[in-house]
Predict the 3D structure of the following.
Amino acid sequence: MSVKVSMKVNGKPASAEVEARTLLVTFIRENLRLTGTHVGCDTAQCGACTVLMNGKAIKSCSIVAMQAEGADILTIEGVAKADGTLHPMQQAFKDNHGLQCGFCTPGMVMNALDFAAANPNPTEKEVREALEGNLCRCTGYHNIVKSIMAGARAMAASK
Amino acid sequence: MTAPLIGARIARKEDYRFLTGAGQYTDDVALPNQAYAAFVRSPHAHANIRAIDTGAARSSPGFVGVYTGADLAAAKVGTLPCGWLITDIAGKPMKEPPHPCLAQGKVRYVGDPVAVVIADTPQRARDAAERVEVDYEVLPAVVDAVKAREKGAPVLHEIAPDNTCYVWALGDKGAVDAAFASAAHVTRLEFVNNRLAPNAIEPRSALGAYSRAADEYTLYVANQNPHVERLLMTAFVLGLPEHKVRVVAPDVGGGFGSKIYLYNEDVVVTWAARQLNRPVKWTSDRAEAFVSDAHGRDHVTVAELALDRDGKFLAMRVRTTANLGAYLSTFASAVPTILYATLLAGQYTTPVIYCEVAAAFTNTTPVDAYRGAGRPEATYVVERLVETAARELKLDPAELRRRNFIRKFPYQTPVALQYDTGDYEATLAAANELADVKGYAARKDESARRGKLRGLGYAAYIEACGIAPSAVAGALGARAGLFEAGEIRVHPTGTVTVFTGSHSHGQGHETTFAQVVAERLGLPIENVEIVHGDTSKVLFGMGTYGSRSIAVGGTAIMKALDKVIAKGKKIAAHLLEASEADIEYDRGIFKVAGTDRKKAFGEIAFAAYVPHNYPHDKLEPGLNENAFYDPSNFTFPAGTYVCEVEVDRDTGQVSIDRFTAVDDFGKVINPMIVEGQVHGGLTQGIGQALTEGCRYDANGQLLTGSLMDYCLPRAGDVPSFKVDTRETPCTHNPLGVKGCGEAGAIGAPAAVINALTDALGVKDLPMPATAHTVWRALQKKAA
């Protein structure tokens, strides 16, 4: 069965005819060719596919595209400014060496954006708890935690 | 004058693309008209294949093609090679059973690929693969390496009726036995070094393409060494002309060893692309990754240390049974032998060591190198023995180590290696200081007041990196050279593109290598670009594993830079009308010594490409040099780790309260990147010690086949780390570098278990020491 799905992705309208079973992440990666959102597992454990749906971090492997009908989706490609300047959270990851292979990074950043919006000055413990749903195999989390603490403060300061 | 780049915390050049979603991993590559492969995998650990019916799959929507082992055999597709020949204790070659890309009549582990189905979307390929019917005659299976070698065990391969690939030994058995007979004290441990699933977060992926017009193949693949992948695939499996095959390993999302190897799927998609005349892509899901990515470790070991009355080590005796899984993966045979037994001297002067290793085939996923590869297992043996001996002799474990440290270099160990340099006292002293070991007793009391147990453990590891002197490796059985290649392409305007055979999949080479080149040439780092991971761009490469990139790949680049500067001096001498011997090169300027006559690097580059005024009789135009570097020795990173754990008596929950690592990696190019490598390695090592472990049931079903069942460390499972370095520069490469990628994973498991056994007051604990394991140990002790 194929269905038409329509939503806003990174501020632009996006729609396609897809099989009903198409996951949101598949729609984003294969139909829209926005390949910054990654798939690292099949059990909603790794968080590499995290995007913002109506401002909230969700795992885009865990819902079908139809469930995002009419939603406002933000992927990693839509985070930096139009002129290419990094968002303060992205910049914090760069400044603090919060990424190595880069594969989990988009999910980490998207989760961090949601978290930091509600936690402008988080403690290390709060950040570690907030990362429960995101796996990284390279960094040992040390510098991701530093990045998110710094990024949250930078976001608060830039408001 | 600009600040030095070597030693500076330069932010990474590669970060922008990864942070904006612009990285290009293999699954992100889309070729026109590409089809998608799904593999039919064995659900049984051991079975004969009676029949395969692909009829229903052929009528599945979007079906493009289906192939079985019989099709590959008919097309004379070869079997996967093993890159290291081990000669056994009797002087005979190891048993090398064929490793077909798709099963030939028999399956030998859960996940063994039986057929490939190709369709127009990934979902339809899976649907069609579900419709392939395989009639299996299920056979008894064996998953335990020790049991596999017992009489009456199910036999995997005809050529190895005892399931034994080899029994291999290193060291002087007679001398070791004699030393044990007269020793004042013997410490003995028996343990399992647990089987791990590497779990790079990017699943493996391969996209094969074939052009009839050019008669050329292209394989995009998540791989750590594209030239090795190409060599193995063309020369040993597909019989293709190497110059007609391009292998690209684009951005790769972590490897940790698991992406070194030539895998079944890589060959199949490449071969199928030609049969179907359209690109074929396969991307693993995590469930497939658990059964099809090579696992790591899985040793069963009995280890003994003999000491005299003063705590001097007299001898070490180690017997290990290594589980190789169902087939020999690319470098499987070298891991529990050459990369293991040679490290058993550790940081100590133990005069005689004997190690015997039996390697067994079992009905499990093949086992190969995973971060550290043999060296974590060796460090675990040595450092668990040393810490246990200290406790038995009621000596301070740091003091016992000091009494036995190697202090004179070069040092010839009794297990083949010659350490060039090191200062183990320095890393131990620094770790003690940074970990505040002095304050430990007070912290232990404070924990006790809260009803918690606290323990402290050390691990003083050594590893052999910079793999490897090819002649030495060849004599030990390597079927490949282990040099590295680099090329410096200076452009007419003086900017530089560097091509390296090393491959970066998280290590940050695009930054570190640029720092080296920019520093040596005296150029802004922006003027240097690093290219890697494409056989059509890079001249050659042995790739990245064993923490070899900066020591071997970096040195190849340094050698090529020397050639660029040497040629630049010739050009400068001509332009400045001076003798070549009088030209000096310093930070971007060629200068006649003792004068103010000079030419900038860019002017020399321009002259090389616009050679109007040029010594044509003596020199070719252009400024483009390459170099191959074959190291003269291994490098020997070493360090001391101190772990402090706190244990909840009621639940067995372990918390790593502090973890301190002081490493000697020789010269450090980018401390920020090096620290990141250590953090990641430590976390994988802590994972091995506390949370990770592959479990099979007796029938060979992998019980830990998802991230719900196999516990990777999460952010809340590890602390922020205290890391620092000490520096004894490597003596035999120009940068003085040793390598840093694996250290954390090598040293951490022993440090954690030493801390935990200290906290509990028990001699040993199995890894992973989960809360349940720890709780049971506490109950047993209380009983």
In short: Chain B touches chain A through 59 residues (CB under 8 Å). Chain B is about 30% helix and 25% strand. The first strand of chain B starts at residue 35 and ends at 41. Chain B has a mean pLDDT of 97.
